[in-house]
Specification:
Blueprint: H1 8-23, H2 30-37, H3 41-47, H4 51-76, H5 79-97, H6 99-107, H7 118-141, H8 150-169, H9 181-192
Length: 194
């Protein structure tokens, strides 16, 4: 019989995100996370070891979910325009669907500084960039996309949406980022098309 029950590890990560969202990473205690998740002390330390490890694992998990969604949309794209727009849309869709995780990722990178997961995140990011470069290369070579440094391409695709996301996630603007999905996708395409 199949079950939809979350793993204990995922329950702890979900509880941590709720606590971090409500109280901030610094003010959250391991006991708050334990209580919210219904986990035993032993289970908490078995899976993570510390609040900092939980925060780092949450950060890596959130980015892994985002990258998987981005790859899903990019794989379904036909051509350069659809691909560029898919990357922009993946960013917007993921933020709209996961505002607490997005807020944590945008403002919580410091949680990785002393974590053993920093190396894992660096490797995942390197692989993700390599996949994107492999996707972009034939479109650049065929003259469909501008030849630009790869480190600039990501900023051109998601930069405007990223700026708006920071405003929306902080509550400074009220209109959901998803409302402007097509505007940001078109801006990304206009920035990169040859």
């Amino acid at each position: 019989m199949a079950t939809n029950r979350k793993s204990r590890k995922q329950e702890i990560l979900d509880a941590a995100l709720s606590c971090f969202t409500e109280h901030g990473v610094e003010a959250t205690t391991i006991d708050m996370i334990r209580e919210r998740s219904g986990s035993s002390v032993g289970s908490m330390y078995h899976h993570f070891g510390s609040k900092e490890s939980i925060a780092a694992a949450l950060y890596v998990d959130a980015l892994a979910g985002y990258h998987a969604y981005q790859q899903e949309l990019l794989s379904a794209a036909n051509g350069a325009e659809e691909g560029v727009k898919a990357i922009a849309c993946a960013y917007i869709d993921w933020i709209a669907a996961n505002p607490d995780k997005a807020r944590f990722v945008l403002y919580g990178r410091g949680v990785l500084a002393k974590s053993e997961l920093a190396g894992e995140l660096k490797e995942r990011t390197r692989r993700s960039m390599a996949e994107l470069q492999a996707w972009f290369r034939p479109h650049i070579e065929a003259g469909r996309l501008k030849t630009l440094p790869m480190e600039v391409v990501g900023s051109l695709i998601t930069g405007p949406a990223h700026d708006y996301a920071r405003l929306w996630l902080s509550g400074r603007v009220k209109t959901n980022i998803r409302t402007y999905r097509e505007i940001f996708a078109e801006a990304a395409w206009n920035a990169l098309k040859a």
